[in-house]
Amino acid sequence: MATGLPSQTQVIELLDGEFARAGYEVEDVIIDTRARPPRITVVADGDTAPDLDTIATLSRRASTLLDRVRSIRGQYVLEVTSRGVDRPLTSEKHFRRARGRKIELTLTDGSRLTGRVGETSHNTLNLVVRHDRDRDWTLRSIPLDEIAEAVVQVEFSSPAKRELELATQAVGAARTEAET
User: Fold this and answer.
1) Where is the Ribosome maturation factor RimP N-terminal domain (predicted)?
2) Per residue in 143-153, pLDDT tens?
3) Whose CB has fewer CB within 10 Å in the chain, the N or C terminal residue?
4) What angle do CA 97, 98, 99 make, to 5 degrees?
5) Distance (Å, whole) CA 43 – CA 112
């Protein structure tokens, strides 16, 4: 069925350069032709989450570019949004960008963990977790391919100082400190 709307790939190609110039990337595009009027949702992501002013700017730029596409017929609703906390973390860049945030993981063996995202590199997540024996904070390295699902948790209180220190320091520094 011809909708008169561009494809997901066409929207990404059209907006990708403009979003990159603003320091963001097009994370996803969802085209809902069942909605009346049809809806184009563009999900933006970057090393810092876009604030409302940035979303408004990206939305105006996207609207201008989409309005220039001659093949688009009829009305549609454009929505530019950020990833939001409810979207799962699925790639190394998502974990890097979530550094310092509390997450809940399900591993491929079915076990579940809750911890704070530390340094992520070389397809490995360093997760700050409570050590069962002494109830102190420790780093646990988890290969990303062993993570089945990961979701950021909403927090209503500040994290423990030691927990946050481990999450924000480099792994080499954490090992050096632990060895002394």
Assistant:
1) 20-86
2) 999 999 999 88
3) N
4) 95
5) 28
